[in-house]
Design goal:
Blueprint: E1 29-33, E2 36-39, H1 40-54, H2 60-82, H3 89-111, H4 120-129, E3 132-141, H5 144-155, H6 161-168, H7 172-177, E4 180-185, H8 191-198, E5 209-210, E6 215-225, H9 231-264, E7 268-269, H10 271-282, H11 286-290, E8 296-300, E9 303-306, H12 307-314, H13 319-323, H14 328-350, H15 357-382, H16 387-403, E10 407-409, H17 411-416
Antiparallel strand pairs: 1-2, 1-10, 3-4, 3-6, 5-6, 7-8, 8-9
Helix pairs in contact: 2-15, 3-14, 3-15, 4-9
Amino acid sequence: MKGKTLFNHCFIILLVFAYTGCEKGIDATVVEVDEEVIHLSSFKKQYKEYMDNNYQSDNLLTRYSFLNKLVEEKLILKYARENNLDNDPSYAEYIGDIYDQMLLNYYFDKKVNKDFRTTEIETRKLFIWQNQRAHIRHLFSRSEKQIWSINEKLTNDNSSWSSLAQECFKDSVLQLNGGDIGWHTYDDLNPVFAFHAFSLIPGEISDPVRTSDGYSIIKLVDVKNNNLLTENDYQQKRETLSKAIKSFQQKQRLLEFTDSTSKSLDIAFNESMVLKLHQSIKSLPHHEIEDLYQEPLVSFMDQEWDVSKSLQKMSSLSKRQLSKIITPIDLEQSIIGLITREKLLESARKEKVFQDELFVKAMSLKKDKAMIKHVLNIERNQVNIGIDSTKKNYSYFKKELLSNSSIVIDSTIIKTFIL
């Protein structure tokens, strides 16, 4: 691959043949890239997705723009196969992550995404909520045990809301304003949080509720209504409202399902070691962290993770996820999430989710997209920074790929097919 660069996304296909006698009654061939044939039905399906994703309208320019993109991707994948790029360690690791996430998605779809139903009362209620603005405060914890402790102090120990906010928030602004997140519309907020918040009446405080980030006790301070709503407005949005409710029901069910899995694992921490590890991550030199590596940190079912293994597992967390680890409780919750994820993946493999026909097709598309992105990144890293030099390298490689490929296009079909 040294010395080669990849062409840009705007190339014009050089080799085009128009068939004058399109076969009728069968799925006609639109384009052949070497021995790979793309039929009209497949082309049209992908073309519609392309227009939807890019907000394009159907015209001849858009058709050829998509065609060029499609052929370009086929040539990139051919190039990748010829250079055995699927064996590249960085690509293999990336695909492994995608595979695991897809396993979970299909497993959740099987276990969680049932045929949820909505009622007229629910859609009308959501319609009103989506046309309101709410002033909201909340108390937060990532730990279920801690949020119920906060709730006990609030309801039975007469602790003030302000003092509890100072206790549960690390953010100085939220500490000082009592967890006040201000005025929001329903759609500004996480759907699960929004549902519970807008379900309240002004001045009411919720019981602890589970959200995607942790647990909250929510107080609805005030609400402002839009008094200009009409029945026609509701009817026009009814289908969208129904979909939003089903989406909420799925997210709520997913939280319940994952929480149930976590509790079934009987996860127990070595609390003193959690505190040491949290402190060491924040302040100690690296060699002092290494001294803790062999210490047991967490046990579940018949397994145990020491500090070293826990840190290894945590390396898979994103920067955003790592940034949320501020307290020892945050550290515990992150590890609980990783343990639960492994258990769910194990269950997905046992149920052979990967044999599902839809999974196989979707995974194939994901791998192709990932490979295209991988090749483009490699080629961009190999070109010189100068624009003129980059264009020359692109042009050269484009010609090289085209010269090694047979591309045949039925331009009559491209011009005349009906969506």
